[in-house]
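Reference record
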Amino acid sequence: MSVTTADPTRLAAIRVQQAGRDRQKPISPAELARRIVRNYRITPAIELISDVISDAITQPGRRYVITTPPRTGKSVLVSRVGVVDALRRNPNAQIILASYSDELAQDHSREARAMIAEHSALLGYRLSPDKTAVGRWRVDGHAGGLLAGGINSGATGFGADLLLVDDPVKDQTEADSAAHRRRVINEFRSTLMSRVHPGGSVVLVMTRWHPDDLAGTLLRDEPDVWTHVNIPAVAEAGIPDALGRAPGVVMTSALGYTAAEFAAIRRSVGERAWYSLYQGVPAAPEGGLIKRDWLDQWRLPAAPTAPTKTVVGVDPADSGSGDSCGIVAASMTREGVVAVIADVSAPMTSDQWARAAVDLAVDVGASEIAVEGFSARETYQRVVKDAIRRTATPHPIRVTTWPPKGSGRGGGDAMARSSALLQGLETGTTRIAGHLPDLEGAAVTWQAGQHQPDALAALVVAHDVLVHAIGQQWGFASPLDSERRMREGTITSMPGYLRRRIGG
C-alpha cells in the first residue's frame, strides 16, 4: 500500500529529533566534519588524526608531524575543519595556515569560510563583516581568526595560538633542491615559529620526499619535542605505523582502495614516490646502504634461546641534556650468527641512558655493556658502573668502552666502522630477531654522507664486540656436517677453506 500524505504528528517528531541533533555539539573535528562535509567518511586514520588535531587545539604547546597517503581526507580535516573547530572551541584563537603557495593556503581558507557561513548556527559564531579577505579574516565580535598564505609570504602583524603547516613543499623537484629545503626550514623557524604565542601548538602535514626536509630536520634536531604520526598505506616492518597494524595490513581508505589497487598504484608511481607519498618515509625502505630485502630475507622469528654471548651496545648522548642515544642488544648464536634482539634507543640524559642500558642488559641476560668511547671513555665507563651499583643485577655485567685501546678497530668514518655490519646484514651472518621497527626504519633510510642513526651506531659497537669474541673461543667443526647444515639453512655461510675440495 502506498502512502500519499505524511503524518503531521510523525513529521513534528522528526523535526524535534533533528533539532536535538543540531543542538548537540560535535565532540571532535572528525565528528564535526561528518556533520558539515558532504559524504565525509571517518576511517581509523581520520579518527586518529582527529584526536591529534583535538589535542593540539585544546592542550598547550603541542608539536605534531603528520604523514599519511594522499586522498585520505587529512587536509580537509586539518586545514579546513580543524580551523573551524578551533574557532568553535575558542573564538578568540588566532590561527596561521601556511602551504607551499598562497593559492593553496587561500583555497583552504575559502572552504573554511564557506563552512562557517553555512553552519554558523551549529558552530555558534560567524565571520566579521569587516574582515573578510580570502586569506585574512576574523570572527565577529572576537579577536580570533585566520591568516592563510604561502610559507614564504610572511606573517607580519599576526600571532598564532595554532600554527598549521600543510604541504610546505610542492613536489619532489623542490624537495630535491638543497637551496629550497634551506629556504623552507629557515622560513619556518625564523618567521612562522616566531609568531607562535606561548603555549601555542603546531601541526605540520607534509610528504616526506627527502630525509633532510622540514619534517626530517625537526624530528632529528628536536626528537623530544616533535611527535611523528605516520600512517602508511600498507603496514610494513621497519616503517612506523601510528595505527599499530601487523605487517601487510592495508589501511581503511576513505575512497575504498583495496590491497590490489594499492599494489597497482605502487607499480605505477615507482618505489620512491610510493614510499614518500604512501608510506611516509623519505627513501624506499629497500634501503640505501642497508637494503630492506637483507633484513627480511634473513630475519629470525625470535631471539635465540641459548646464545653464547649477549652484549648491549651504546652510542651515548653527546651531552647530559637529553640528546639522542643509541642502545641496542645483540646475541651470538651457537652457529656464529649475530642476532639483533632489542632496541631502546631514545633521547636521554647521561643518567637515563646508563640506567636504560643496565635495565636492558638485565632483561636480555647480557654479560657485557660496551659503550662507544671516542670522546669520554673513562666518564662513560664510570657512569654505567655507577648505574650497575644502584641496580640489583642478577648476574655479573662487564662494562667496556669501544673500540678497545690499542686494538686498531673503530678507525675511519661511520661508513668504515660499519663495513663489517653491512656485510653481515647482506650475507645473513647478522640478522634481526623479530621486528624492531625504529631500528630497521633508521637503518634502511641511512644514506652515504648522512649522520649515522644512533641506534645503528650502537649496533656497530655490539656487532664488533660479538664478532671479535669468536676469536677468544676454541671450536671444532666437521666440513661435511657444516656443508649439510648450510644446505638445510641452519647456518648461513661457510669459510672458503671448509668448502674447498681436495682431489684424489
